[in-house]
Fold this protein.
Amino acid sequence: MEDFGQEEVLLLAMLYRRRKRRRIRRRRMWVRSIFVQRSQQGEFHRLLQEMRLSDPKSHFIYLRMSKGTFDKLLTKVEPFLAGSRHYSSDSQRLEITPAERLAITIRYLATGNSQVSLAFSFRVAKSTVCKILQQTCKAIWEALQPEYVKAPTNE
């Protein structure tokens, strides 16, 4: 086995440095700055709570259901959402509550807004909105199906 010459050692050192720099550059931003203030400026924590407290008509227009209906649906769906935890992209990693997940889903179903639009207005990542919609729709089905959809019979 030959000993490495000075040139080979320098080349290996340069390659090592280049790879290390590439690794550093590839790191993605963990949190977008607009998501940091989700609990203070997001639609759920600000607009929706204000409508719930002082303007039930606007709440109905916004979610296409009354506050009472939303709360009743949340009570039925919440046990099915308990296992699926989502966290916001902010530095404290605040959990996205079942109420917030249901609001995102109902807003999507009621308006047909894009998932990107919902992500910005509720201040959560687009991929998180996608997962929330899938899991919450499944939870709504599991919660309401036994009560509202009869199983087919052979008769």
